[in-house]
């Protein structure tokens, strides 16, 4: 049985979708993802950052995204994330802003700035408001919902939601091209998906090219070594984040229980309902502070600790002393 490397690891994803010579694969994925009308479909594309950090693939802080520009000037950034760091929307906006602002040259008119698209493929449930696996965001007016401009476009593609829909047979690899490309990322872990993709590839030359490139890449010993280094770094980070989530939940539950108990005691003593609420709040605050201290020890950034615990960055900085 063939042993494929997982395309959910950004290093492997970039080897297939962000490598010079594989532009046809990237174009097929983007045309499926962006749902462009026939007359506006991408026909030519240039990969801006085809290089890979071969020396430090295990560096989990390095960014192995895919950046490209179409022949029409549209800028595109694709990033894949395995673990929820609770900053994806801000992270995506930041990278979008970087790509958009890089277009500026001296003497250039603002109207010359072109559309910039950020695509986030995530291996976790992220948007709680919807069961859709693919969601697209633009700039709209709050009340009448008309679009201010089309230059900003941000996509979130959630693999767990997609996989769940496929397992319920609500979607088909044969009928939906985007489903096909996204489930390619699940192929290393799902033999049924892999088999269906191999059948489709016999009728889809670009998918056939992608499958061949994936197989050849998976068999290269040097690539496999770099891949497993990168995979270990990413999974270690994912485990650390999960541990922090569990610690946070445990601390909040302990803090809430303590707060309720202290609040009841204080409320009985003072004969006031405020005592119960105050004690509960104090308990929650103590629980969050305890979790923040543990996350500091684990080396998490203050901004991420603030998002996870609800404490301010100043409060967290004070815990260092």
TrEMBL record:
InterPro entries: RpnA
Protein name, per record: Putatative recombinase
